[in-house]
Design brief:
The protein has about 190 residues and is an alpha/beta fold. It has helices at about 15-20, 95-105, 120-130, 150-155, 165-180, and strands at about 5-10, 30, 35, 45, 50, 110-115, 135-140, 160-165. The strands form 2 sheets. Strands 4-5-1-6-7-8 form a 6-stranded mixed beta sheet, with helices on both faces.
């Protein structure tokens, strides 16, 4: 059975929607010595291979502030306060960006979940995936139903767009995409 390689674009947070969707407490960071990307850092699941994004956490959620995007940093990029020194040797923003780009290139499917209106990195991930002819499944949270139509431009580039996406619907969409890939509807 062939398994899809799935990149899950969306805002990064401590034990976020990806963890819930995959049924894990932790997503392997996939970094060897926190600086070098190796494809064996992919996280294997029974029906899919998770290829990103990978982010760093010291379990204090220090690397999940706005503007940090899961990259190690000693200071917050906006106000300069010290975040945490637990992983001061972690990947830089440049390394996290390169890793995300590589994950998208390695993927068969990009599942993009927009649950916050300021998902700027996610918009880049979607655009990059579309430019590289990846299957992009865009899901816009039901929590954004008052502004979901504001995403019309990015939705035009997606292979398929789902509005008013609840978490249960997101799980069903993932299962459907995996099934379609396995039976050959998506090469």
């Amino acid at each position: 059975m062939r398994k899809p390689r799935i990149y899950m674009a969306g805002k990064v947070g401590k034990r976020d929607w990806r963890h819930q969707l995959l049924g894990v407490d932790r997503i392997a960071h996939g970094w060897d010595d926190f600086t070098t990307y190796h494809t064996n850092g992919w996280q294997e699941f029974e029906l899919l291979t998770y290829v990103g994004p990978f982010f760093v956490s010291c379990d204090h959620a220090c690397f999940h502030h706005n503007g940090v995007h899961g990259a190690a940093s000693l200071t917050h990029p906006k106000d300069g306060h010290t975040i945490c020194t637990a992983l001061s040797d972690g990947p830089s923003p440049t390394q996290v960006h390169r890793r995300a780009v590589q994950g998208i290139l390695d993927s068969n499917i990009v599942l993009a979940y927009i649950d916050k209106p300021d998902a700027y990195g996610t918009l880049f991930e979607i655009g990059f995936a579309v430019a590289n002819k990846k299957r992009v499944v865009l899901c816009i949270s039901d929590e954004l139903r008052d502004i979901d139509k504001d995403f019309w431009f990015i939705a035009r580039g997606a292979s398929v767009t789902h509005y008013n996406t609840t978490f249960e619907k997101l799980k069903n969409i993932l299962h459907l995409e995996v099934r379609n890939f396995v039976v050959g509807d998506d090469a």
